[in-house]
Structures are given as structure tokens and as C-alpha cells.
Amino acid sequence: MKIRIYNARILPMTEEKAGHFQIVEGEIQIIEDKIAYVGPSEIAPSGCGSTGKEQSASGADDKWDREIDAQGNLILPGFKNAHTHSGMTFLRSYADDLPLLDWLNKQVFPMEAKLTPEDVYLFSKLAVLEYLTSGITANFDMYLTPDTMAQASKDLGFRTVICGAVNDFVQSVPEMEKWYKTYNQFDPLISYQLGFHAEYTTSKPVLEDIAALAKDLKAPVYMHNSESCSETEQCIDRTGMTPTAYLDSLGMFAHGGGGFHCIHMTEEDLEIFKERGLYVVTNPASNMKLASGIPPLTKMLQMGIPVAIGTDGPASNNCLDMFREMFLVTGLAKLKEKDAAVVDAKEVLYMAAVQGARAIGLADCDSLAPGKQADLIMIDLHQPNMQPLNNLTKNIVYSGSKQNVVMTMIAGKILYEKGEFYVPEDVERLYADVNCRVEELKR
Amino acid sequence: MKIRIYNARILPMTEEKAGHFQIVEGEIQIIEDKIAYVGPSEIAPSGCGSTGKEQSASGADDKWDREIDAQGNLILPGFKNAHTHSGMTFLRSYADDLPLLDWLNKQVFPMEAKLTPEDVYLFSKLAVLEYLTSGITANFDMYLTPDTMAQASKDLGFRTVICGAVNDFVQSVPEMEKWYKTYNQFDPLISYQLGFHAEYTTSKPVLEDIAALAKDLKAPVYMHNSESCSETEQCIDRTGMTPTAYLDSLGMFAHGGGGFHCIHMTEEDLEIFKERGLYVVTNPASNMKLASGIPPLTKMLQMGIPVAIGTDGPASNNCLDMFREMFLVTGLAKLKEKDAAVVDAKEVLYMAAVQGARAIGLADCDSLAPGKQADLIMIDLHQPNMQPLNNLTKNIVYSGSKQNVVMTMIAGKILYEKGEFYVPEDVERLYADVNCRVEELKR
């Protein structure tokens, strides 16, 4: 497919760091799965309707499969959901308003124990639809059954980096090694990174095996890290070290990686993140809803630690909405520091679109430039919450909403446009199947 | 107009307090500006298309102007935005990421000084459009020029309660008395309540005049209250009392009223709110973005103090989105108390829909029952963030979004449906006018 989107404002986000993002007025051209051109239109389109005869700037002169008049709307790189558990959609609004341990032990774990791989396939597809509505073009998905997680994303055309979920109860290190090799060759949309659930659910011999595998594969490793105060304190009681320091002492971070949540972090923890080039993936809505706390984001950014954003799973959040997360990232930082000036909108947008990609091994999806993957979204500026056009970055981060997402494109394919899904799936049937299966699981 | 919406799930919210809201499966009938019937459909509609010949339950047997198949979607009372400054849309994304005093003194006040009444008319209309997209059916609007605020809402068919904004610099008590009489007779959609900006901007003689007027009119009084720590401390320095205690000592609350923000509240302040029947209007997004703090909401609810929700103005928030506010109300309370169980979804939905109406004198808009005003919204459940249907109240509060609002009806008129506005306004022209005027104001 060759697609040309003209009459657009484009935020390529190719700057090396968050700053004043340059807006390009013109067009973006997509050939197959890649971006071919971003820049001014050499010959302006003739009025509102396209004649299909305009000379394109890249010289690919005719035969566009589709020419889209963006009507001045904004194109930017898609958001990357850098930490989620997609298959947990079945628990949305099932268990909430409970203390954390009751929630996990009485509601989440007993229900998860009943799940089949086919359930994960079904429930992951529901999550993918929601990602598309929120302009999320890739996720970093930690859940139970990589086979059906990969299949769900592949079948819908969604980009997924599967994260290992080893602990003492599910998944083994040899399985993870096999999956690493399988799912880094499976499909261009699918990749795999090493990961384990958390220090507190994974015994030392298993952690040592993971560290050895990471060294062998020269691969980064990801895990939940310092999400709750008690988890951190218990690790210190057991090992004399914080989770970050303990994992580092095992050689876990020889080739980088990252931590999800990272709320209860010491100065030394942050130094390790900085030194090892580890990514913090912050999950603000989940951290509020489970009363976990507020991470020291201002400090992290001051130290140059890269930060990405994740929704966490739909059982704890409960929605998969990057707009809500973006507002919360800055709002919680401002509250924590009692300073309305910290963590500004540019930093947050950079986390959501650019750093999210780099955090999970998708550097070719981080920005809009020729040769990069065509993972992009269109934001409708013709809505009251986007007016006036004082500052588009601030409009997105402070007043943006899923409702503004009028197109989500992944690898050059439009999967969502003006409220309609263009995926090989009967969406109403999927909703019915999900509800039917949820009722069975509740019995 | 006679409108019948059938095949609906309806949340009438007629319960006396937040609890397990009963869902009615059936239809709602609207005749002119009022609800005529809520209940089961006596004769089910014949399939997807309506023949127009179904016998209605209320006996109003034919001649519906419109019959709408809700397709199983959810109807509930509209949200009430119980504190806002609509005319400030022009400052959206203009001044952010600044310390509070810089923001006010260097950005907000100099720009506001240039505003004409016609500007307020223009910018208020932009806000009204945004309210409609978020399912907000009424606002409590504190801003500069009541005449053009009232006209903007009346012209678009929106319901506005204007709040007096007296302080030592703008608006006088005699003006407020005149407006109170004028705008409580002006139009069924418009009403007026006494109010002043805040204790720290209003000198004692003016406050005494307001208290006297409130007693004379037997009217409640509303104001910003204890939004920032310094404001509260300075009041104590000046008067020996907190803002709440000081205003109460002047007899301000003889006939009730309420406070906006109410963050830095003492035990005694809460006792006064309880005793006087005052409403707390909480503004969580603004309180985060300006780093103002988190109110003691759990305590307020335990004491039985009624709580409503407002967005505050678009200069501080920056959006006018009740879904974001609802999530933040509970999320911030959970963080503050370090307890995931506090302020559950039912409480929050009750604040947004029911208490918001009662807080601002719109008791006939608080719920869906025969004789009440037909101020209601339809939530699309056929979207991935609303699935599965484990719990509709939680789905709305924890994962709902403006995108789910597929209809907003005020006084029996549909003003917004499936992304389109049905108001006597060229929306694109309005956006252009707003941008044009904003550029002039910036010069």
C-alpha cells in the first residue's frame, strides 16, 4: 500500500531529547510498512477533494492507493504502552476498591488460575482494540501465554513486544529462552524481551539463571520493581539490599533493561538505573488506584534516566488510555514536588511516543522519518478540547482524549479510523464472546 | 418534542444516597423538557428498526417525534460541572508549567484585563461545546460578565447556573443583587447564585454586605475556599481564623452554599460544613496541575458532607472532562489515604451526576424520574473500554471516556449525538473566531 496524507500538521519528534518539537506543515508518505517522506507538499493539493494527480515530493508520482486530506489535523508517532497485561481485560471492573492483598489473593489469582491459552487470545484481542482507540501502536505485554498473545496481536495487525513473565509459579527460564528465539523470528509485528515478574516472586536460583541467559543473549531484562513499600522493605530484610541493588548484584543488568513502577527508589537505586542505562516505565493510574504511591520522576529526569509510560493491566487501571496516563504523569509529579513547573508537557509526550519505543527495543518506531516504521496517529484538532491552537503539545497532554484519535496506523496499515476498526474481526461478536466467557469464569 | 429511547439500560439514580444503583432495562420517554416515563417497555420494539407503532408504556400512544433504539446502551443523568470558569478557554495551553503566582500574575491576569463581554460570549460557547462532548449537562460558572455568559448558554441550549464572582476588583454587591433577580427570571435554562471569588481577594465590608444580601434573599453563597496552603495561613494571620471559620463568623452561611477546592481544611472547618449543610466542590485535575494538594475527601464523606465535582477553568485544568475528574476524585483519595478501598466508584458517580445538581440549586435535574428535567446522556457500551459488562458503574468511573458519550440531552433537546453538535452555531467558524481573537489578545 502507498498512502499519502496531505494538508497535515506533522510532529516528527526526531529531536534527540524533549524540547520544542518542530511542527512540519505538509504531508507524510507511507510505502508499505515504512515512512517514505515527511515534509512540505511540493504541489499543494487542489482544494478539498484530491484529484489523485498531484506530484508527490518523493517522486513516487502516481498510483497512490489512498490519498487522505488531513484537514490540518496533527500526525505524530503512535504512543507506546510500555507496560501492560493485556489478557487481564476480563477482570475489568470485577475487583476494585479493595486493599491490594485482598485484590490479588481473593479476586485476581483465583480467576487467573482458570484461564486457558484461548482465553488469553480472546481477552488480549479486546485490549488491542482499546489500544487502537487511544492511539497506542505498540505494547510491552507481560502475561501468561506468549503463544496466544503473539497470535492475537498478529491476527489484528498490532505490534507487540512480549515480555517474559517468569517467576517461581509460572514460566521457566528454558521456556523463556525458547520463546525469545521463537518470537523474535515469528512475525515482523512481534518481538520478545527477557523478563520476570518481580524479585519477590522469583527465587535466587531462578534469578541467577535469568541473569546468565541475559549475558548469553546480550539481552536486556525487565521486571516489576519497587511498586509497593512492603515489597521493598521485605527485600531489604531478606537480602540486605533494595530490589534494584539486589538484582544488580546478581548481574541482571549487564545489557540493560528496565523496571515497571519504580516508586520506592533510593538514591542508590537511581544511580544504578543511570549507570546501567535502565528505563523506568511509570504507571500512574495503576499506582493511584492501588494506592501504591508516586515515583520520584522529577529526580529521575534530572539525572537523565530515560522514562517511558505504561497503563499497567486493565484489572488495576482499569482502562488502557494513554491520554489519562500522560496527564497523570505530570500531575502526580507536580503534586509530589508541590511545584506546578516540574515535568512539563514536552517531556511527557516524549516519554509516551519516543522513549516508550526505545525502552522496549522498537527504536525504528520512535519517530516519523524516512525509513522508520509507519506507526502513527492522527489527532483531530477540530474538536473543542483542542481549541484554541495555542500550543499543540500542551493541548495533547493536558486536554487530549481518546476522542481526538481519528486514525491509528501500524506498519503502514490503518487499523482504526473515525471510530471504526479495520481489523479482521467481528467486534460485536468479540464483545459477546468475552462476556460469555467471563460469566463462565465467574461460576 | 416527544422522544422515546427504547432498548436501553437506564440508571435513574433516584436512590437517596450512593449505593448499588438499580439498572432499569426498558425505555425512557421525554415530553418537551421533562421526563415522562422510565421503566420497562410494555411492548418490545419489533426488531432493530422502529415501526413507530409500538404502544408506549405511558399511554402516549403515537406521534413520537423521534424513537431511538439505544441498542442496549446506558442512559444516566448528565454530569454537572459544579465549578468552572468557562470563559477561560482562551488561555488553554497558553500558560502552564509555571509556579502558581507566576501563572496568575504574569499570564492570567494581564490577559483577562483585555477581555470584552463579547470575548466572554465567544470563549464560553467554546467551553459549552466541550461540556457537551463530556456528558456535562449543566455548569456552575464563575466568571466576569454574567450578561454574555447567560446569553452564550441560552443561545446554545445549555443549562448554566451563574455564580457571583464579587471581589475587591470586579463585580459589586449591588450588581450581584441585580443579576440575582435578572438571571433567575431570564430563561428556564439560566439561574443565578450568590458568590464571591475568595476570602483573600474580598475585604471585610464587602463580605459583610454579601452575608447581609444572602440573609435578605435567603440564598446560599459559594466561593473558592482553602485552595492553597498559603491562602489559609494568611487568613489565620489576618483574622485568627481559617477561611471557613472566618466566613461563618460573618454569618455567610445562614442559608447554606458551598466551597470550591476545600483542600486545606481543619476538623473545625469540616464541622462547620457539616452543620451548615455546605457542599464541597472538589476539583482534582486543577489541584494536581497547580500542585495545590489533595482534599480530605474520605473524611468528608464519612462525616456526611455532600461532595460535588468541578473541572475548574480550562486555564488550570486544561480540559473540561468529567471522566478525567471522576477517576482523579477516587484515585487521589486512595493515594492520600494509602488505601485502595476508599471513595468507591458509586460514590464518585453519585457526586458527578446527583450531588452536582443539588449543590448548585438544580434539584430537578438530579436523577431520571417522571417530572424531572430531561438532562441525560447515553454511554456507548459497544466500545472496548466498556467491555466486559462486569459492573457498569465501575466501567464509567474507572475506564470511561468522553468517547463513550454518544448523546447529550438538555431539557429534552439533543444537543450532541454521535460526535455531531446540534446547536445553532457553525462550529468551525467558532473555532476560527476563537483563534483569531486569541491572536489579537496575545499582541
UniProtKB/TrEMBL annotation, chains A, B:
Domain Amidohydrolase-related: 75-415
Keywords from the named record: Hydrolase
UniProt cross-references to InterPro entries, sorted A to Z: Amidohydro-rel, Metal-dep_hydrolase_composite, Metal_Hydrolase, MTA/SAH_deaminase
Membrane-spanning intervals of the chain: none
Xref: Pfam families: Amidohydro_1
Tree of life domain: Bacteria
Entry-linked PANTHER family: AMIDOHYDROLASE-RELATED DOMAIN-CONTAINING PROTEIN, AMINOHYDROLASE SSNA-RELATED
Protein name in UniProt: Amidohydrolase
Source organism (scientific name): Dorea hominis
Lineage of source species: Bacteria, Bacillati, Bacillota, Clostridia, Lachnospirales
